[in-house]
Records
---
Amino acid sequence: MEKILNRYLKQETGAAPLAIIRIGFGLMMCFSIIRFWSKGWIEKIYISPKFHFSYYGFEWVQYLGDYTYLLFIICFFSAFFVAIGYKYRIAIIIFFLSFTYIELLEKATYLNHYYFISVFSFMLIFLPAHLYFSADSFISKKTYPKIPKWTTDSIKLLLSIVYIYAGLAKINSDWLFKAMPLKIWLPSKYDLPLIGENLMQENWVHFAMSWSGMIYDLTIPFLLFYRKTRWFAFALVVFFHVFTRVLFPIGMFPYIMIISSLIFFDASFHNKIISLIRRLLQFFFKLKLNKKPVLEKIQYPKKPKGLYIVIVFLAIQLLIPFRYGLYPGELFWTEEGYRFSWRVMLMEKMGYTTFKIVNGKTQDFFYVNNSDFLTSFQEKQMSFQPDLILEYAHYLGDHFTSQGHKNVKVFAESYVALNGRISQPFIRKDVDLYKEKESFKHKYWVLPFNDEIKGL
Amino acid sequence: MLKNIFLSILAITLIIACNDTEEIDNGPNNDDFNRQGMLINLADNIIIPAYQNLNTKLDLLVSSKDIFISSPNLDNLNLIRSSWLNAYKSWQSVEMINIGKAEEILYHYQMNIYPTDINDIENNIAIGNVDLTHPNNNDAVGFPALDYMLFGLETTDTAIIQKYTSNVDAENYKMYLSDLVMQMKSLTELVLNDWTSSYKDIFTSSSSNSATSGVNMFINDFIFYYEKGLRANKIGIPAGNFSATTLPEKVEAFYNKEVSKILSLEALNAVQDLFNGKTYVGDSSNPSQPSLGSSFNDYLTYLDKSDLASLINDKFDIARQKIQLLDNNFFNQVNTDNVKMTQAYDALQTVVVLLKVDMLQVFNISVDYVDADGD
């Protein structure tokens, strides 16, 4: 066993694939930040709300007000330096920290693809993506044409985890036997040219897309791994992600996945891309070919410390999505263990939650107008996620206590509809949420789900 | 690899095969729902007739006002009061429509902001000739201001009439009353003419599923009105649901003291009729029978959710019954037995959930939240 492992760790591969991934990822991030900024989302999401939802254990995260823009600027430049491979190690660390910090600022905006970017950039810290076709290599006049195979394999493994876990999550009775939530989402795409008014309305299309989505997620990593099916698989990747981009508001995620999946190709393919980029650079910037520096070729150390971190990290990634098994109740309903598990576009859930502030002594009460404290986006997200409901209830309790209200108790009246079922009561009306503490324990005050969703 | 492809094809074929048999009895219609047809029904048979009715009622109010101003006496006071009430009732079918010109000119803020601010009104009267469209005057104009001018100036009718006759500021009172009515009339005309001349086409052709399309904004506004304008303003706020104590002086038509229930019921009927696409007929004296056209109800049925549509109607009916149990004067109701008020509120609330959660989920419309990414 150890022999096999050692032999594996000695295997090498060309450094070009990792370089291409680094460039692609960096540029995508630059573009994402510009896009995010230009849509005014920095202001809307991070600056204007009075109150921010924080992650359990990360309540210490400080809100930066207008300095949030500075954070985005830092994030942008670090991504750019990653792309060109200048001071790579520092750049990718700063990128990971600044991006993750931004995400920690507001839990209501949690998206799997933002989490993916954090995870991916964390791994890149430990991978030698800057040893080839990078500013660092150009300046130090050293290049490493070969890098250990495990470095590119770890990215392949991470992508496979994302796909396969997303596929496993789709093996449930709502997705496969009710075509939910696609049955809700697709008919509303009636505006789409050509397919909107006919295909998107068809029952069989909803089922076909549910099933093929599940099969796609579960098989695509394997199809990408095998050389013979690789191009076919890549065509599928492009088709699938572009198609979902057309259908759903998923921003940059499809492009990031398309670029990332290039890692599965051989180094020769990436070398072609690199020489194409070289030619483009020469054409546009008139770099003189004959002045190209002679790069010293050096072997990359065989077993760097990064290896162990990456192994542990990937192992954690394999385990985290299964933590929902530790909680009772329906996962889609309680969402205990729902995040960080690649459950992507999996359910249609909406809620309506109002809060009652009660004076515990006199039993006098009044209802809170949520729009006094939350943006409509935050209210929408809060209304069906128990941890957000709890955090907001505490905020309300603190707020009204500081306003001079006595013996404050906070009760939620909440209704949630999941995957087209008629809404049902969500939170126990008799539980004073102001007394309940956030923890990893099961939230007993979430009412049981009236139906059953079978599956993983 | 081959096995995977084989399995995929097998699975898809199976699904399609199973599905074909299923579709025969309970699959949704394959015909696409005609959203534009729904918008045309809303515009032609509900929205525009409601504005026209209000406009006619305001015409009558204008003439009653002219009669009252030329000879302020008890008969003429009662005449203008009854014109006011008819127009106010008609308004209840228009209040839920806040799109197009109405939204642009802040029509609602100048028609029915209550409680009205009597200090502002008295100041305006004392100064004379103020700009009623100014935002500071939103709570000194419209139906609530008329409510005060016609019922609340003094405690007896004789004393009220004296304000318009023997009071030193009588001319100013007359002018303010006249200005109020004329402003309401001209704003309504502006909104109505915009609908009939150009906005109808804009509205009915804007049936795409985007945050700014006519159909989505209309649905959002409709639900927002039901939640805030009807449930909260008319019932919840006076009942003290949003404050530490009850606020009975915040009822609609506070000075009249007899019609807050009538107005609330009108508003609820208007909302339910719009949900069901029922043609607007206005007064009960109107001989034409209401007919049903394409509506949210039909859209839900098209999406296989007729159970939700009937549940919504059932809950509307229950809410109506709860409101019918209340005193004509909500001020009295809040002060004597506020539990009935909060029960009416709770009944209205059940429909908020069904509209805002269930109906919006089924329609899956892009709502006017922050346009953020999903995943």
---
Amino acid sequence: MNTTRFVIAACAAIGALSCPGTGFAASDQELKEIQQQIQALKSEYEEKIKSLEARLEAAEQAARAAEAKAAAAQTGVAAATPPPAPPPPAQPVAPAAAGAFNPAISAVLLGTFGQFSRNPDKARIPGFELGPDAGAGERGFSLNESEVDLAANIDQALYGSLVIALQPDNTVNVEEGYLQTTSLPWGFTVKAGRFFSGIGYLNEQHIHAWDFVDAPLPYRALLNTQYGDDGGQVRWLAPTDWFLEFGGEAFRGDAFPAANGPGHGKGAGSLFVHSGGDIGESSSWLAGLSYLQTRAGDRVTGADVFSGRDHIGIASLVYKWAPQGNPTQRNLILTGEFFHGLEEGTFDGNRFDQWRDGWYLQGVYQFMPRWRIGFRHDELDSDRLAGVFAGGTLDNLGHVPRRNTALLEFDTSEFARFRLQYTRDDADLTTDDEVLLTYNVTYGPHGAHRF
Amino acid sequence: MRTILSVLLGVIAVTTAPPALAALNVFACEPEWGALVTELGGDKVSVYVATTGRQDPHQIQARPSLIAQARKADLTVCTGAELEIGWMPMVERSAANARIQPGAPGAFEAASHVRLLEIPARLDRAEGDIHASGNPHIQTDPRNILTVAKPLSDKLAELDPANAAYYDNRHADFVHRWTQALQRWQAEAAPLKGVPVAVQHKSWVYFFDWTGLREIVALEPKPGIPPSSGYLAQVLEQVRREPVKMVIRAAYEDPRPSEFLSEQAKIPAVELPFTVGGTDGAGDLFSLYDDTLHRLLEALGHDSSKP
């Protein structure tokens, strides 16, 4: 009653003060009334607190007296037989405030200093048309993507997650915003909204959860770094002793390599299966097979226009090792993925189809607490197109794009990682030497250690 | 295609056939709760223990094997108090199992049944990896095991009412044996009262509450942050001013910091099991405390206490 009144008054006051320009305009008289109400409530509460303090004081004195008595009694008893003194009964803990129901809010900050021997703005990969986010990086200091995550159980049946990405050019976009079921029978999980697809291994993880600073070449060239769109997903977890999961997705079809799905009545879809388990106490693994099909209508990349389909198959394998399954001191993570894709349709008005392959293999080793080293090799390959395509975007010029990357990481804690990464980049015809120095921090409630 | 599908379904059918006629599938987050459920549930429960005594329960990943086991669990028994916050929420969400979601009848948290100590006055990550609801390492005090046994036994009976009398009998028997053991341990632990010690991680507050050991200093500058050599030098200074009898670490912890202090300060470094399976001697719930006390008394020079 009183509390509700107070909350409403306080909210109204806060609202009136903090959003004067947003259309909430209280008249002076209303404001005065509210102030008076707050004043009245304040004095009322102060009195109540005073009386409570007095009662608490009295109760504490009584408790001290009782304790002294009990202690005296116990010394007498203890001399005879030492009975196991049971701990006092549990005190039910009630959430203190309405804030207890706030979602878990966490922030991720990523900052980079980059040095490139060639201008990264002009970076290209011969034979591949690149999506809008597939650039090579930024020279000098730059804020990478900053993220705000809001996640909570919505009710007994649903979990919700919203990831807001703040881009260095001061634009804001919803990176993920989805709800997910938690209580469907028979091992089913349904997800709807905007989310990263469950294909591959790295795809579903956020940039800050990757072991290296940037995405491997096949992700960059074939999936515009990460594939995510608006859509729905169904997963089924088999009731087996080892991990076996099947999934399928349907997407709106706006994200590269798809484009303009709704306008053309087209879309994208995927199927995947994941399996995993432990090998003894020290090792565990996760394998996956995924297939993504996307359709594009008049997709523009640079000066090129493409209409048609993309088929991408991905085989993934992750192996993790830690002595006796305890990664705190030392651990090793090996990840490898192989991409096999076909693009078919019309490119700048000419019919074509082209096979594209890509793979990477990477290892990251924590050799002592807080220190990790890593190495990665990534590579692409494609059919060489001739005729009208010779010398154009889809002509790979007989070049095999590849990179080698070395990583050194120091963590002040699991929430803050500092990375120095060197890449010898032969994605283009001439070699680029790249040095990236980054920080990658997370703060807020403790996040999950996903596999 | 059809043959592949039928083979696949066949494989699933074979592997999912129930292995025994255990009534309840229990997913225990830590070995001590796995052992307690086995004591209370006998052959009516089939227990999967998610971690071992050699693993740091804070630093577990939501591995595929854990998700697969959580999928078929009727009951999860975890410490709670945010000990598993880094991995259990992920396991629960990925397991697609309504029975074990937070708040569901099949989610049991031991820490919500005991009085927690070291509830932080200030919640700030600058204080290290602290737990908002208090220190979660409640199993180091055997009295807490007794406290948790009752609601856990009730939970088994609630989920499997057909065997309620069975669980009740086993609980009564367990209480009898545990109370006897407690009296023995209290007598054995008497020489530990007031003994000053150093610890590696603040894992022992409940154990100290029970035995009366006194924690003088922790080797970790903040909970969960490994000590640097500079910080260890400071600890050594403090130990020289305020001598301790030994330095204690859990079996899963890096032995180097405590061994450094042991050499420099000429005090024994004692590795304690911390949970069931942490050491070879701590094979079950009873021997966990036998072995813990034995190791401490040996370090104090009380060899007569050998069981």
